[in-house]
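ARCHIVE CARD
CATEGORY: sequence design from structure
SOURCE FIELD: tokenized fold
FIELD CONTENT:
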């Protein structure tokens, strides 16, 4: 079954709801996540062929495709964050080891 959470085929103009994410730093803990709506009219038409903009209809298939790409990108970013965290820990461990060797 297709994922359709947030899709509203009856809404005009076509919108894709995005949920705001919290910033990585802890200083923004008091800020609330705000929903963000991306309207087709917000996309500069100079970036799209005129035949595309005149006949564009945002369908459930478009939503599912974009939602899948967003999920994939989110997973990739999460994986990169884990890799960077692991590398950072390795550098800290090596630095500590080098300091111990240099002191003794």
């Amino acid at each position: 079954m297709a994922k359709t959470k947030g899709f509203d085929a009856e809404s005009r103009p076509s919108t894709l709801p995005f949920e705001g994410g919290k910033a990585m730093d802890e200083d923004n803990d008091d800020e609330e996540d705000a929903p963000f709506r991306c309207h087709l009219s917000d996309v500069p038409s100079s970036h799209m062929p005129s035949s595309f903009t005149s006949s564009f209809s945002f369908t459930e298939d478009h939503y599912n495709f974009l939602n899948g790409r967003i999920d994939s990108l989110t997973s990739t970013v999460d994986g990169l964050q884990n890799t960077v965290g692991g590398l950072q820990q390795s550098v800290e461990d090596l630095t500590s080891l080098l300091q111990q060797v240099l002191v003794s």
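CARD ANNOTATION: The helical segments are 50-55, 60-103. The radius of gyration is 22 Å.
SHELF: design records, drawer C
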